[in-house]
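Are you able to produce any protein sequence you like plus the matching backbone structure tokens because I've never seen that pairing?
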Amino acid sequence: MRLALYIFATFALMVIIAAFTYTVNPDHYTIELMGINFSFPVAVWIVLPMLLLLIFTLVHMFFYGLKNYFILKKWQKDANTLEDALYWSLVNEPKEQKYGIDVVGNSASLLGKASLNISDNMEGLTPRLTRVVNIIQKIKNGDYVDFKEEKMTKVFNVGNPILTQNRLNRLESDDKFVSDVLKSTSEYTEIVKVEALETFARKENFVKAQKYAKVFDIKSFFTMLERVTEEDNLELTPEILTDFVKALDLSCQDFIKIVSVTKKYFNPEENLTLFRGYQLENPKAQNAYLYLLFEYELLEQVAIYLNEQEENEFIKFRALWQLKQEHSKYKLEDIIDIDSICNETRL
């Protein structure tokens, strides 16, 4: 029953009772209280307790109504706080929240330390949560979402898995972003940097890659190198190759891989000049240099080079040189497994 209707019904009842009482007994009744005489019709004295009861009832209702109002306000505030906590947990940026009601806070505080993983879209969420769930699902499905357009640029910290996945998605479709990552690698996580390098290495040539030589890793370098063919050498030149060799920490086997490619596309003079210089600066390139000398049948230079080394070094190269003195038909591959040259440098 609404409050106004309740008051109206109460007063109506009081009037009916007072009128009925007055018709039965219209006399007055006097009460002395603290020296003061109170004289009213009997009908008034009959309805007076009802009036007092109404007043106390209204005061009671007002008190508990006000109390419930503030409790409801706390619930509404906690509901908004809970929505905020769910939002930050969904975007993998959980934040501590303060709750006004203990029964809510005791459980909901877990969201301040947890990240939520949604496997599918959901219905019945608030507009804010529905929006962020849809965005996350798009990213999981491989789409790129422009956080600037979504006004979410300040939501994610560096290293956030959602931000990282979104950037990986962008790398697949935005070549300019690939270059942006390589220009400012410190601003991106390692996984984004590595994927940007791989994407770049699968698509671009060595002229474009040269300016990023210092941020390249060995895997991406060889991804590019393995794409070199007679039809398309990816504009690889000795000068560009040297920039990469200086920038990368190459192993002996890496130099062997490089020389197995360059012997096909560089002329002998270029190759020998390159690897003569490499082996002087880096002993790990010695095997590759010897490999080239045998490849070009420069046996006199092989003999000179081997004589400058310790007798227990390059044993199989020495054995091949001996055989070549007697049977020139022998080739390096007949004696030495190219893939294991670096394991047998010294015996």
User: Anything to note?
Assistant: The longest strand covers residues 28-33. The mean pLDDT is 87. DSSP finds 16 helices and two strands in the chain. The two ends are 102 Å apart (CA to CA).
